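Morning - zinc ion inputs below, output right after.
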Amino acid sequence: MDNLVTYILIFILGSAIGSFLNVVIYRVPLGKSIISPPSSCPKCGTKIKPWHNIPIIGWLILGGKCAECKEPISVRYPLIELLTGFLAVAIFYKLKIFDIFFIIDFAVFATLLALSVIDFDYKAVPDSLNLLALTLAFFSSADVLENIKNALLMIGILSLVRYYVSYILKREALGEGDIIVAGTMGALLGVKLSLIALFIASVIAIFPSLYIRFKNSELELPFVPFLAFATFIVWYFKDFFLNLWSSIYG
Ligand SMILES: [Zn+2]
């Protein structure tokens, strides 16, 4: 019972952070302050009432529409709150303890989630958030120097991959944003697991990129969502992937 209450509290905490992430995702790329003014309807400017700001529930009470002008509010808002809530629960379930490392790991993955959504919207990510995730990731375990070293290695590896691929494709491949995310990956996972995560991210990204090519669409595929997702999967199932690595390479 105690356990269930803890998980519910963690979920509520996570979804509240998700609500804040929505503000970050909307305002940071526009260069607006994330602290003030309080949220308002982008169409009619009506201030969002406190009870409408309750994660997930607020959106349901409003029926997905502004209370004043009935402008639809994207279902993405409650979805991100829900996802961030589950993210917190999943990380707590893995770590089993609410300590500084839980807070840092959650903060890093929540920031990666925000970066993923922003990359999806803009095909670019703000350096402020990207560097925040990287800096936090340096402190994601006690061996900070080792984490920084792994981050630098991954940044180097990905920069090199970028030179090769750009040379072969005769166009810019991978953004600078992706390279910083690879650094975050390195700090969290170490080099071996990061290479696995890079591989997984690339494999998953092949399908939508083939789809785009076949449709002859001008759409540009954001890579940060794939990097972030693969980082989380590999981080979560670390032991499995380390075993896999040793069974292949000894
Ligand atoms: Zn409105």
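Note: The mean pLDDT is 94.

O.
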